[in-house]
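Repro:
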Amino acid sequence: MAEIPYVRLNADYGEIRADVIAAVDRVFGKGDFILGEAVERFEQAAARPCGVAHVVALNSGTDALILGMKALGIGPGDEVITQPNSFVASAAAIVHIGATPVFADVLPDQNIDPDQVAAAVTPRTKAIMAVHLTGRCAQMDRLRAIADRHRVLLIEDAAQAFGSKYRGVDAGALGDLGCFSAHPLKNLNAAGDGGFATTNDAAVAERIRRLRNHGLVDRNTVSEWGYASRLDTLQAEVLLIRLQGLSSVIERRRANAARYQGLLASAPVFCPPDRPEEFNTFHTFVIQVDRRDELRTHLLENKIGAAIHYPVPLHLQPAAAHLGYKAGAFPVTERQAQRILSLPIHQHLAEADIVRVAECISAFYGAARS
């Protein structure tokens, strides 16, 4: 096992153990397991840091995308522009509602390139889906201008960006719809799957609420065919507990990122920049390097965990073959896929851990030059 693991999901349990046990006792004592009272409390609590009027809790970030797009009226025959370097859920959600994902290349910081988005718009375009990859918001002002010019919707796949901001506006309030994951690996994390959608449109929120519960408007009336995508009450309780300490988690992750940036400044490494118009919550800290696979092996040999998010772009996945993209279609994405490496960034790292990771990287390239 790595001495400096990539993640330590059990590390903060001691800090919240009493609260979690009390929550379990509360939920089991009431027998209030699905869409219970805590779900509504979580929705209200999460709306404030997202700067929106409505939050709808669901069983995954993927369902937030699927049900959210359905509630916006996106479906068969429509195109949704997104990026090919995201997790599979982004494009898969588009396919699952019967629409077609249209990819646009990305910028050096891995977020979608507005110029490439503008070039990808067609008469069939219904929405732009920007993925706030790694915890950094996309250039939403430029994307909003494109969306408004073409009268299309703007969607945030903010699965990795709870608490992030762009020009002072919260992730989740930058588009017509925000979609968040509460997977255990996220900064705001449940003890299993979970997610939620954000919007300022009451009608959209109400339709997502119906869709998550089989389309029921009451116990015996189905207004439309829906889904079973309800957040468990116990997960809502856990998320309420996590929300209380989230600002500290984000502060520590940002401090860890700043330490990496300083320590790796002289190494042949592209570190994600920290721009004044952005508030990056650093879900991941992704560097870009030559000889990536050799470096990762070197880190593992030195008992340092590292990950790759994601090594095969979506347009080159077997499932995307019907879309007709070939290697070379998105050169920035494809080059990054060979160079990206996610370093440990979690809030449980000690200063010495970050120094050791940085020194190991610098030593690898120093040895390579000698």
